[in-house]
Write a structure and sequence with these properties.
- By secondary structure, this protein is mainly α.
- Helix content is 86%, strand content 0%.
- α1 (2-48) packs parallel to α3.
- The longest helix has 54 residues, at 86-139.
- The radius of gyration is 32 Å and the shape is rod-shaped.
């Protein structure tokens, strides 16, 4: 019986080492998934020019950064402590980060398009304002020279 008790103890120790790594890894990749969802929502907000939504997504991603760094370090420590393959983990992380960076790059392109559109609209508005001022000056009554009296009607 003692022998089976020690086997159970060993199993628990092994499970304790493996399960936290799996959970920590799952947690890290769930954080990456949250980042992905926020980036997709941010991109949609950019395309709709919904700047409040864009700001909300960016703020959420800002707070998520620290959690990702902490989770990443925890997973690496656990994999190393458990004798796991750190290279496999790092390759998986690099792949996920590459996908997220692609979304960030797409959002940057969409944002640049929105900025160019806004600049064109601003330029058109300025041109229209200048034309209206020109028309207003053309139809404005002449102003008497300074110091001259105006006739009474």
């Amino acid at each position: 019986m003692r022998r089976s008790g020690s086997r159970r103890s060993r199993r628990r120790v092994c499970r304790r080492r493996l399960i936290p790594s799996v959970n920590a890894r799952e947690h890290l990749f769930s954080l990456y998934e949250q980042w992905r969802r926020l980036s997709v929502a941010e991109g949609a907000g950019i395309q709709r020019a919904d700047w409040a939504e864009v700001a909300r997504c960016q703020n959420a991603k800002y707070t998520l950064q620290e959690r990702i760094v902490t989770a990443s370090e925890a997973v690496k420590r656990e994999v190393t402590a458990g004798g796991g393959d750190l290279r496999e983990l790092e390759a998986a992380i690099r792949g996920e980060v590459a996908r997220l960076m692609e979304l960030e790059n797409q959002n940057a392109l969409h944002l640049a398009e929105q900025q160019a559109r806004a600049q064109r609209e601003q330029s058109a508005t300025q041109q229209a304002t200048q034309k209206l001022r020109h028309v207003a000056r053309a139809y404005a009554p002449p102003t008497p020279p300074a110091g001259t009296a105006t006739p009474d009607t």
